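Readers outside the structure-tokenisation community will struggle with the description of the input data as it stands. For illustration, here is how one protein appears when written out as sequence plus structure tokens:
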Amino acid sequence: MCDVGILTFHCADNFGAMLQAYGLKTCLREHGIRADIIPYEPPFMTGRHWWIPYIPMWGVRSIVRNGVNGWIRNIRMGKNFFRRRANMKRFREEYLTQKSQRKIFFSKQFKSLLYQSYIVGSDQIWNPDITCGLRKIYFGVFPNQNKKKVIAYAASLGGAFLSEEYDKQFSELISFLDAVSVREKAAISYIERFYDGKVQAVLDPVFLLNRRKWKSIEKVPDLIRYIFVYMTEKNDDLIRYVRELSMKKKMLIVTLKNEEDIVGENIYIDDAAGPAEFLGYIHKADYVVTNSFHGTAFSIIYQKRFMVFQHSSVGERISNILKIHELENRIYQKNIDTEIDRAIEWDRVEQRTETNMEISRRFLMEQL
């Protein structure tokens, strides 16, 4: 019997989701704790990555519209859609779950699991916009006679609070947890309104491993002198900034999405990349420009020259991690001098990472 079962977003074809899952599992195993990622892969999570996407929210019309639009996008990707899926699957099977593990789709399948302790998190497991409503599983609420303890590690709401419509349900579900830690400090006051206990702020699991560990699983590109761009939502200011930076530095722009607004001969698109390739692109980049939380996190881990643009829905997460590392000057602001070549005191940044990492590790070890 393994000691700990982890419930997270490992099944999402998303770089950050898969890498944070790897970070948590690997950290626990390095500390002598036998930990497995539970292969919980419900359609409401995996469906958005299908050939014809399925996202069960907002009614039938919305489901059909999202499916058709997603299908058209996937057709445009052509063979790269299947290459990307293969790269994601390869990483998942090599580093996250084993083929011998039986996939779980429904709560009743949890009855047979032998774990006594469970960790829910990290990632936005309590963001109803992602999970299509609040899901009991991600609060450890499922039938299992062996279950003794459920811990939330670096759980995220996606922001500082949820809409009032979720207050009652959230209050009921949070009571099933034995210990709670979150990724955003700003969310603590909201959660403590409903949770009868202390809520701890901890680091995203990608920070639980050092740069050397991440290098050991990366796949570096055959490219030199480039600006790596990773957008998780369209941002006109970011696009304009990257174009100007590329002309100024006379460097190639590398992106993992075919963003139609970033056009020209000086662009390299790899829309078939998986998590290992994502790490390699950041590692070898001369500059990183992003509005992604994990794009920001790995820019810090790999000590890159980088610039961050705020995201409309996850800005709190990005601001929080930059504030922890005293790197708020990496946030782009119009009409303010935000120079990407401004020197960063990386020794000081590493010290802050280590201090907060120790707090995070201590939370895990004390609870387990």
